[in-house]
Amino acid sequence: MTRTRFAPSLTGHLHIGNLRSALFAYLLAKHDEGEFILRIEDTNSSKILISPEELINVLLNTFQLTYDEGPKKERDSTEYIQSKRLDIYKSYAEKLLKKGEAYYCFCDKKTLNAKRMKASEEKQNFLYEDPCRIIGIEEAKNRVLAGESYTIRQKMPRSGQISFHDLVYGDITFDNSTLEDQILIKSDGFPTYNFANVIDDALMDITHVTRGCEYLSSMPKYLLLYEALNFPRPEFVHLPLIKNKEKGNLTKTNKDDDLIDLLKQGFLPSAILNYIALLGWNPRTNQEFFTLQELINEFDISKITKRPCCYDIKKLEWFNKHYISKMNDQEYINFTRPYLENVYNLKDKTEEWINNLLLLFKKHLHFGSEIALVSNLFFREIIVLDETCISYLRSDELIPSILKTFKEEIETCSDWNLQNIEELLKRVELKTNSTKEKTYRSIRIVVTGLNYGRELSKILFLLEQQTIIKRVENSIGMY
Ligand code: GLU
Predict the structure, then answer these.
(1) Is 290 exposed, middle or buried (0-12, 13-18, 19+ CB in 10 A)?
(2) Which of 33, 182, 231, 403 could be joined to 202 by an S-S link, Cβ 3.0–4.6 Å?
(3) What is the torsional sign of CA 448, 452, 456, 458?
(4) CA-CA distance, 152 to 189, in Å (whole number)?
(5) What confidence tens digit (pLDDT) does each residue in 233-259 have?
(6) Alpha carbon distance 421, 34 (integer Å)
(7) What is the mean pLDDT of residues 107-116?
(8) Does pLDDT of 120 surpass 90?
(9) Is 192 touching ligand 1 by the criterion CB < 6 Å?
């Protein structure tokens, strides 16, 4: 049975790349009717930035990527949290020590780092020839017992090559001579990420290891561990690099792909998942919109692409806009209203007014919090006109009379409803002998400060007469 896992380290913010790894592992398992496992890789405790609870909540409740095994699922949930499995890693390190494939290292970290720094400053390759490699096991054990600080390192071969087949990138070979003896257990007693990761993948019967291709360079280290520990190799599925359109590679510190932020701004989980699915997976059809179930049905490793892909927030906005516009009206109102309420005081507004305002933007909103930006013109008295607006107003002699007639019509309109407003606009056009385009544009500019926007009659309806009159009066003298 296909078993995949998502194994987040929690050492950075939760970003698009994390979710893509989770989604692809999930899709791969579910397409094959297999199992998806969540494992928390928290062995680098000093750097943990998000809590497992938060991560689980996002994964399960927000994105509905339900896992079959993992924390909070099993009777003994600690089974899927690495910091609770230290004894397991220690026992495997001891096995390797016994076989003579690992050794205790007593080298001082500071001296070692200084050597490494010096080499990098001198642009020299640095490959540490560890003097501890030849210390006898009895002597080493005595030093450990005497309380000396130590790490446990794996003896790496000094020559030869190691190869593997990646299901996306094909056959890859590495030279062993470039490898340093890798640390398995750190001086704080915690395993390194590489060591724990390989042991857990093997013990958890993971059949396909799915992760970002930034891990490809660590493959020889993993492979040598599989060999030393006599574990069968799983299949490896490395996913293409995600680059940021503006800023180069996505990194753990580059925050504009922070999932929690995106959710807060009002990006919908369904849109995010749909967009992310296409970061490195090409369905080879023209279909762009996929539900999670459709993704499960269609997902196929052979359609994972090798070339780096681009995280483009504009494209994500485009997907999100589609999903927002597909909501029913009530869902949409419930979704957007908090973003409006957050910024504006709605106390003296009626429910009907608020709903009409929200619905005016339903087909045009890119993300939830954008509602506060686009509706700003409804919450202030005065509009500031920029240069392009002013030069348009000055571009035609007819415009002053359009605006004068419009103001008179507004002042005398006794029943403020949409139909009357539309008729009123038509009258302005006819009375001034203008075109519809010119009439609408000059009124829109004076009333909204914009050259384009949503339906003018609806905007006027929501703005109400007094505000409109004030804005028209305020613009006199500018054209
Ligand atoms: N713990 C690693 C990370 O968060 C996962 C790498 C892997 O899936 O093997 O990036």
Answers:
(1) buried
(2) 231
(3) negative
(4) 9
(5) 999 999 999 998 765 555 544 567 889
(6) 60
(7) 87
(8) no
(9) no
